[in-house]
Structure prediction request, 179 residues.
Amino acid sequence: FIYSVATLISIFLTFGSNLYHLNYIKTKTQKSLKYLFSSFIISTLFFFILLILLIFFSIFNISINLSFDYYYFYYALLLGFVWSINLNIFSFWKSIDLFKLEAKAYLFFSFLLIFSLMIGIIFRLFEVINLEWILVALIILNLVPFIIGFLNIKKLYNLKMQDIINDIKFSYTTIYISV
Prediction:
């Protein structure tokens, strides 16, 4: 159930930016990078809106009849957010014909996942590890493709950290002015 909720959240948080990247960004330009950062900012804003709603429901004890603890939604929200930023970055790569980078990142992710599962089975960790630890591990493992993607974009565009901060500020200002 938590995995399904995370999938729905990731679809909501991407708000169609992956389709925009695939259809309208065709070249590796500074402007295309600004679109990517804008999609990150919008996904992050939606994430915080959902997080505030979830905290509100928790504080005021607005219950939903569930057979598990309410705080699992926090894990689902965070996992969905990580998936949404991965989807944004990988659709951006596909749009500028760098599908190989996505394949390499997910190949590395798959090896990490299989290795983690093998360690869990060999050392019988699944007998003592509860669901929270598995969800945390999934979130961390899913951050790996994002980190690989971010580092490759930084290298591809020859960006310094100050350039990235300036692009994010520009993207935030653009979004704020248009709203």
Q: What stands out?
A: The radius of gyration is 18 Å. The longest helix spans residues 30-59.
